[in-house]
Amino acid sequence: MTGLPPEQSRTLHSHHLSEARVGHLATADESGVPHVIPVCFAVDGDHIYSVLDQKPKRTGLTRLRRVRNILSNPQATLVADHYEEDWSRLWYVMISGRAELLLEGEERSAAILVLRAKYPQYRDMDIDENPVIKITVERVIAWGGSESSQPQR
User: Fold this and answer.
1) Which of 27, 32, 93, 131 makes the best surface tag, with the fewest CB within 10 Å?
2) Which pTM was predicted?
3) Which run of H or of E encompasses 37?
4) Helix (H) or strand (E) run with residue 19 in it
5) How far apart, in Å, do the first and last CA atoms of the chain sit?
6) pLDDT (mean) for 67-92
7) How far apart (Å, rounded) are the C-alpha atoms in residues 62 and 130?
8) Does any domain span residue 151?
9) Residue 20 sits in a domain of what CATH number?
10) Is the residue at 149 inside a domain?
11) Would you call 132 helix, strand, or coil by DSSP?
C-alpha cells in the first residue's frame, strides 16, 4: 500500500478519531464467524495499534479469540463512534484493513509509546513485551451529523 487517498488520510487523522477513547475491533475466524470487542487504540500514520494488556483474562494473551482470528483471517475492522442526545453531534469512523500481530521489534515498541501517550493508564502497566495488534488501513468510512462532517466513502 502506498498510502491512503488524501480524503481518507484526513479522515484517519481527524480530531474525532484521535480523541476517541475506545473503538470496537471486529475480527472473524477462518469460517467468517465474527467477534467484536472494545479496545483502546492509537493512530500512527496509516496504522492503528492496540496492545494486548494485562487486564484479567481467562486465557493467555496469544490464545485470545481476536488473536486467533487475526492469525487465520487478517481482515479486521475498527469502529470508533460518538452518541449523544443532540443527534447533530453524532459521528463514526470505520477503518478496515489487514491486521497482524507484532511480537517484537522497533515498531511494536514505538506503538506502545504512542498508546502510552494517549492512555495514562498504560504508563503504569507492564506492557513493554506484550503483543500489539497492528491494522494497516485500507479503507476509511466516516460519517457525522453536522455540516462540517459529511460521509466519506
Assistant:
1) 32
2) 0.84
3) strand 34-39
4) helix 15-19
5) 18
6) 94
7) 9
8) no
9) 2.30.110.10
10) no
11) strand
Q: How many CB atoms lie under 10 A from the CB of residue 36? A: 13
Residue length of the chain: 153
Report DSSP letters for 70-124, one per residue.
Answer: HHH--EEEEEEEE--SSGGG-EEEEEEEEEEEE-SSHHHHHHHHHHHHH-HHHHT
Cell numbers describing residue 29: 475466524
- In tens, the pLDDT along 77-87 reads 999 999 999 98
Q: pLDDT tens digit string along 15-32?
A: 688 889 999 999 999 999
How distant, in Å, are the alpha carbons of 3, 17, 29, 117 from that of 91? 24, 10, 28, 24
Q: Is residue 135 part of a domain?
A: yes
Look up the domain containing 56 and give its range. 6-144
Q: Chain-wide mean pLDDT for the chain?
A: 86
Q: How many domains does the chain have?
A: 1
- Please give the Cα distance from 111 to 134 (Å, whole number): 9
Q: Is residue 122 part of a domain?
A: yes
Amino acid at 111: A
